Amino acid sequence: MKKSDRMRSEFSGKLTLGVKEFAVKRKRFSVEQIVAVLKQAELGMAVSDLTRQMGISEQTFYRWKKQYAGLQSDQVRELKQLQEENTRLKKPVADLSLDKVILQDINSTKWFGPR
Q1: Rounded to an integer, what is the distance from CA 99 to the centroid of its chain?
Q2: How far is Cα 23 from Cα 12, in angstroms, rounded to an integer?
Q3: Spatial contact of 58 and 51, defined as CB atoms under 8 Å apart
Q4: How far apart are CA 98 and CA 74, in angstroms?
Q5: Among 4, 15, 104, 115, which is least packed, fewest CB within 10 Å?
Q6: 24: β partners
Q7: Per-residue DSSP letters for 66-80?
Q8: How many Cα atoms occupy the beta-carbon half-sphere of 71 within 13 Å?
Q9: Residues 6+ positions from 90 with CB-CB distance below 8 Å
Q10: CB 64, CB 38: distance < 8 Å
């Protein structure tokens, strides 16, 4: 497989920002696959063999292990959903906090209007 073919297969779409286009990398492994790899490592399979089989680096394996260690696939899925919901809810809180600061700043200034 050529390098250009491999690069094309890793990217699933393009993101357009202004005039420039950026390729968006897709995920290669599902949550179930990640949990299965970690379970194989727990059962005694060598990490170097696992990483070679899956085509990942040892750094990726240990990052997965740190993030998903001891969880079942349904628990990992629930964790992801909670993280997404948390991220979604943080934006309105930040917006409201900014509005509050702006209103407090306006309220604290002295207004000298026409009498």
Answers
A1: 28
A2: 8
A3: yes
A4: 37
A5: 115
A6: 13
A7: HHHTT--HHHHHHHH
A8: 19
A9: none
A10: yes
14 is written with which tokens?
Answer: 């393009």
User: For 15-63, how does the pLDDT look when each residue is reduced to its tens digit (9 = 90+)?
Assistant: 555 555 556 555 688 888 888 899 999 999 999 999 999 999 999 999 9
The single-letter code of the amino acid at 61 is: F
Q: Give phi and psi for 18, each to the nearest 5.
A: 65, -125
Amino acid identity for residue 96 in this structure: L
* pTM over cut 0.85: no
Please name every residue paired with 16 in a beta bridge, in sequence order, or none if there are none: 21
The residues facing 13 across adjacent strands are: 24
Please give the Cα distance from 107 to 4 (Å, whole number): 59
- Determine how β-strand 11-17 pairs with β-strand 20-25: antiparallel
CATH of 29-101, one of 1.10.10, 3.30.1340, 1.10.3470, 1.10.275: 1.10.10
8 Å CB contact between 47 and 41: yes
